[in-house]
Amino acid sequence: MDNSDDTLKKKPPRQYFLVLLIGLLVAGLLSQFLFADWIFGVTIALLLSFSWGLLKGYLVIPMRYPDHIIRLIMVAVVIFIVTTITAVLLLNQELAAAYRLLVATLPGLASLFLAYAIARAFASLDELQRRIQLEALAIAFGWSIICVYSIGIYIMAGVEQPRWIYLLPLMVFGWLAGKLWTMWKYR
Amino acid sequence: MKNKLRVLRAERRWSQAMLAEMADVSRQTINAIETEKYDPSLPLAFKLAAIFELTIEAIFQPEQ
């Protein structure tokens, strides 16, 4: 009996991981130098590397997204990255208060577009994959609440308050871990 | 719920990917149904029954 899936799998070469590692290092160091925040550069490096891997066929999304949805997400990611970098660079300049607010609004609008693209992607999935995503998001939500709650208690215990931006990778980690676990459950 | 999807598919020499394509779902979904980790919705059960030209009861049976 044939259980094979023809769409799988072009394995990423070792160079891909090497380039990814070097890219992460460079992006982290650069953003630490430019914005005093390594996490920003690492996130962008990951997004770019992920997109490149998808385009080259090294990475295969087990989910079944139509091509036009993948293109929509990529466009949304690029717009998000460009507006965020532009906003950060501009906000480091001398600008009038009104312009500063306008510039600060741009990444928010771009992230709305990204959220729309992700919602379209989820809507294009089949019933099992939608369930997997839903369960993964529920796990990520619970994980985030546990993290915020625990951090609050640790702060009361005298631990220094971490920057709020670190909540984002924690949430993404919760979603990825939840998705892997749910996919394993329905394997 | 028990099902005969794997047997029926094997009789027709279809791969999971082929059946997934016909049912317009992912191979992962076909695999999860075959391994009885996931019970399909009624519309998907009807679609699978139509593909195999059988009734739903001929493919899916409740657990005893």
Keywords, separated by commas or semicolons:
heterodimer, A: 187 residues, mainly alpha, globular, B: 64 residues, 2 strands, 6% strand
* C-alpha termini separation of chain B: 9 Å
Could you tell me the number of beta strands of chain A?
0
Which structural class fits the helix and strand makeup of chain A?
A: mainly alpha
Largest sheet of chain B: 2 strands, antiparallel
Give the neighbour order of strands across the main sheet of chain B: 1-2
Average pLDDT confidence of chain A is 81
- What portion of residues of chain B is helical? 55-70%
Which residues of chain B sit in consecutive blocks of at least 5 with pLDDT less than 50?
none
| Largest sheet entry of chain A | none
User: What is the count of DSSP helices of chain B, taking H or I runs of 4+ residues?
Assistant: 5
Given helix and strand content, the structural type of chain B is: mainly alpha
Range of helix content of chain A: over 70%
How would you state the average pLDDT of chain B, rounded? 92
Number of helices of chain A: 6
N-to-C SSE string of chain A, H for helix and E for strand: HHHHHH
Assembly of the depicted chains = heterodimer
Q: Whole-number radius of gyration of chain A? A: 19 Å
